[in-house]
Amino acid sequence: QVQLVESGGGLVQAGGSLRLSCVASGTTFNTYVMGWYRQAPGKQRDLVATITRSKWTNYADFVKGRFTISRDNAKNTVYLQMNSLGPEDTAVYYCKAERPTTIYWGQGTQVTVAS
Predict the structure, then answer these.
(1) Distance (Å) of CA 103 to CA 1, 10, 70, 106
(2) How is the chain classified by DSSP, letter by letter?
(3) Parallel, antiparallel, or unpaired: how do β-strands 45-51 and 102-105 relate?
(4) Strands 109-114, 10-13: parallel, antiparallel or unpaired by DSSP?
(5) What is d(CA 83, CA 100) in angstroms, rounded to the nearest whole number?
(6) Mind listing the pLDDT tens digit of every residue in the chain (115 residues)?
(7) Are 22 and 104 in contact (CB under 8 A)?
(8) Distance between CA atoms of residues 33 and 111, nearest Å
(9) Phi-psi region of 87 (alpha: psi -120 to 50; beta: other; left: phi over 0)
(10) Of 21, 34, 65, 72, whose CB neighbour count within 10 A is largest?
(11) Which of 39, 14, 16 lies closest to 109, judged by CA?
(12) Contact between 89 and 72 (Cβ < 8 Å)
């Protein structure tokens, strides 16, 4: 069993920054592809960014150049640095750990961007 705990969300003004963290326990963290997803009220959950165990990254078009995903395998932690935030980034952000036959989700952390 894998537990994922996100933190770092909150209220920020437009143009501001936040850094989300997701700590994984109960797992060999470096065998998982880690990702951040987000879900705004009334909308589907969308991919934000993913990072492989080799640290190859992939980003949704709407965050390219603004968000950076990274991971520290020694700390079992994945991060999402978010810059130049806008109201459209308001959502619950979820951490995901994935292997070919296994997926785990965290509980999510709320990010609210005030205009």
Answers:
(1) 10, 26, 19, 10
(2) --EEEEE--EEEETT--EEEEEEEESS-GGGSEEEEEEE-TTS-EEEEEEE-TT--EEE-GGGTTTEEEEEEGGGTEEEEEE-S--GGG-EEEEEEEEETTEEEE---EEEEEE-
(3) unpaired
(4) parallel
(5) 31
(6) 789 999 999 999 999 999 999 999 977 888 999 999 999 999 999 999 999 999 999 999 999 899 999 999 999 999 999 999 999 999 999 999 999 999 999 999 999 999 9
(7) no
(8) 23
(9) alpha
(10) 34
(11) 39
(12) no
Which of 14, 20, 25 is CA-nearest to residue 104? 25
Go through the chain and tell me how many residues it has.
115
Contacts for 67 with CB less than 8 Å, ≥ 6 apart: 48, 49, 59, 80, 81, 82, 83
Residue 84, amino acid: S
Check the CA dihedral 37-15-79-112 and report its sign. Answer: negative
The label of the residue with tokens 């968000």 reads 67
* Amino acid found at 38: R
